Amino acid sequence: MHLQLSFIPLAVSLVFLLSATETAATVNVVHYPPNATNINNLAFALNGSGAPGIYTSSVTPTKVYGEYNWCNMPHVRTREYKTPSRDFTLEYVEWQAFTNQANPWTNTVGPGFVGSTCQLPQITEEGLEDSITHGEDLRAVYATRLGLGLFINPSTAQIRVTNNQITSQVASGLLKGLFPASTGIQALIQSSTYDSLEPTYSCNKANSLKNAITGNPAWTNHLTAAAGIYAQLDAISGTASHDSAGWHSSFDHYYDNMSAKQCHGKTLPCNVNATSQCVSQDIANTVYRLGNWEYSWQFRDAPESAQYSALHYGAWILELQGHLQDKISGKSQMKYFHNIAHDGSVSPLLGFLQISNMVWPGMGSEVVFELYSKSSASSSGHDNFHSSKSSGTKSYFLRVLWGGQPMVTSTPLGTLDMIPIDDFFSYISSMIGSGSDLFAACNLS
To answer: What proportions of the chain, in percent to the nearest 5, are helix, strand and coil?
Structure first.
């Protein structure tokens, strides 16, 4: 069972973010490279062994919970949640989450998906069940801490989706677990012409940077080195080696197709005519390793990746900052805000935060921003990365969770565990500046 959603247009865009009273910020994007691991080691991606995590079940054994599980990523739940000291009070939580499991498509692979009657994209029964469980887990952790009732109260809790229908399907399951007594919920949604969550807003400079990232010899060389893998996959799928649908510009399509099948317990695909000619598990594992290498390169390893992420996802990040500022100032009574998006949304957010170990965000991935207050004497600021935001006798701090645990970054902020909120705001200012700065930067040639 799931909830029925209706939609409220959310008229927030770059235009809304621009203000005549804004002062120009000093934007100085610094790229802090990620840790060197097997994920961003191309030699291992091509010639190593095994999958870079779990790809065959949405259930992760408790003893290894926290391990990468493409089918159902680790998230906040009671067993692993670390409660801060009683000196801190949880004031507000905002999520950015990737959808749960979608269609495993068919028993073939390649353009056309022979015999498919699926409407793509579409959540599966297993994905809906995972969404409900995810909501129940979040409720177990946050309902008491935030004072959330059985029914959703739009003045204190909101949910936002993109124009892709699968985000609404996930929302219907997640909210059933999170607010079990609610029977109908309104979700916020922006126009598809400028949606900051997906994102779809125009940014010419970001597009140029993306072209530089995928035009770098490191990227083109990895495609050349993987020519043998492509040849085997193409022979099975019937995909033309010079297709125009993106099957050879990255491993995205092959990765999605095979991982969706394996997450649902289905066999790897075979040739539609020669049914004994099938993708081996070794080939699938190589595709999974290469897919993770590709995401690490695009969003963390490439020298342009930090600036790309800041421009490509800056509008949503400025909205997040506004939510936090409104809560601190008392302008907002909101306690909980949940954004349901895509891997193409979570990835630039991880790139912006400059996570130390990048992966391809799996199903159900979440980045959680927890705003805490601490009663104290009015505090004075220090340098950009060592200050705290005070409001009266309260100081405010931020904890950012990835996989249910404090996120480790490569930046001077380090582990995002109870960092003074001004440090986070200063980081945003250094990477993006104001809405006016972002608008101007996006329109540079």
So the answer is: 40, 15, 45
DSSP 155: T
HSE-up of 127 (CA within 13 Å, CB side)?
A: 28
Q: Report the DSSP beta bridge partners of residue 370.
A: 93, 399
- DSSP class of residue 297 equals I
Residues whose CB is less than 8 angstroms from the CB of residue 239 and which lie 6 or more positions away in sequence, other chains included: 110, 111, 233, 247
Distance CA 325, CA 327 (A): 5
**CA gap 245, 423 in Å, rounded:** 43
Taking only the tens place, the pLDDT of each residue in 195-247 is: 999 999 999 999 999 999 999 999 999 999 999 999 999 999 999 988 888 99
Secondary structure of residue 93 in the 3-state scheme: strand
Question: What is the DSSP code (8-state) at residue 63?
Answer: G
Determine how many CB atoms are found less than 10 A away from the CB of residue 259: 24
Query: Could you report the per-residue pLDDT of 41-70, keeping only the tens digit for each?
Result: 999 999 999 999 999 999 999 999 999 999
Q: What is the DSSP string of 265-292?
A: TPPPPB-SSSTT-B--HHHHHHHHHHHH
How far CA 78 is from CA of 88, 220, 235, 423, in Å, comes to 18, 44, 47, 28
CB atoms inside a 10 Å sphere around CB 147: 12
Say what the pTM is. 0.91
- Alpha-carbon Rg for the chain in angstroms: 22
Bridge partners of 419, per DSSP, are 398
Cα gap 6→85, rounded to integer Å: 39
Its sign, for the CA torsion 52, 309, 349, 306, is positive
The stretches of 226-276 forming alpha helices (DSSP H) are 227-237, 252-263
Q: Are 99 and 170 in contact (CB under 8 A)?
A: yes
What is the Cα–Cα distance from 295 to 251, expressed in whole angstroms?
A: 10
Rounded Cα–Cα distance for residues 229 and 148 (Å): 50
Sign of CA dihedral 142, 147, 150, 156: negative
Q: What pairs with residue 270 in β-bridges?
A: 278
